[in-house]
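stage 2 :: seqdesign
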């Protein structure tokens, strides 16, 4: 099962992806988590990454495409995966689709998490307190939401237009368990 999640920061897609990956026994591939792990290295690349991420800007497509290509080729992904936080730009989506094509992979389903940006801001301020993420504060959230609208929204539109049968809009303001049930319902329906 190969799944892509779209949604602005704070839409709860990370939480849903974790739960769904466990349920389906597939890999939760969060590029944000992978990048945050890299920050621990403390080398010159990680210092650069930290600067970009804590300002709310996007890391370069080259770095992200490399990370994704390595992961998708690995054994961890043999049973399937959920892409959470990638592709985030048109260039990343072109890379992904050509990677799928050249490796004979087929995308099964795309979920687009929709939510009011006011709710996102409240959630992120709360998460900042709990997890102490340096990119979770109200100043940075504005940049992250702007990046989402400028860079990622057009990508989700592209997928909506080109994969309309596999593209599902999810109301991300609902309860976690209700959303999870809805995702499973859609997936099971698609398998019939
Ligand atoms: P996330 O946890 O998905 O919100 O990602 C945290 C930060 O990591 C983002 O604000 C970006 O700086 C960086 N990042 C994660 N995924 C990507 C991506 N696909 N392209 C560029 N930057 C990314």
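stage 2 :: out
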């Amino acid at each position: 099962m190969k799944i892509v999640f779209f949604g602005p920061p704070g839409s709860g897609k990370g939480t849903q992806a974790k739960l769904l990956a466990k349920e389906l026994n597939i890999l939760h591939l969060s590029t944000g988590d992978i990048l945050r792990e890299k920050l621990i290295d403390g080398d010159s690349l990680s210092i650069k990454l930290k600067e970009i991420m804590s300002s709310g800007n996007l890391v370069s497509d080259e770095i992200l495409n490399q990370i994704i290509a390595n992961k998708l080729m690995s054994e961890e992904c043999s049973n399937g995966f959920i892409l959470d936080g990638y592709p985030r730009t048109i260039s990343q989506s072109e890379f992904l689709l050509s990677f799928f094509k050249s490796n004979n992979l087929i995308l099964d389903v795309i979920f687009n998490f929709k939510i009011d940006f006011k709710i996102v801001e409240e959630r992120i301020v709360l998460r900042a307190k709990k997890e102490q993420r340096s990119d979770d504060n109200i100043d940075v959230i504005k940049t992250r939401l702007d990046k989402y609208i400028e860079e990622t929204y057009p990508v989700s539109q592209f997928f909506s237009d080109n994969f309309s049968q596999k593209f599902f809009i999810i109301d991300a303001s609902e309860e976690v368990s209700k959303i999870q049930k809805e995702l499973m319902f859609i997936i099971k329906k698609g398998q019939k």
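stage 3 :: structure notes
- The chain has eight helices and five strands.
- Residues 88 and 152 are 5 Å apart (CA to CA).
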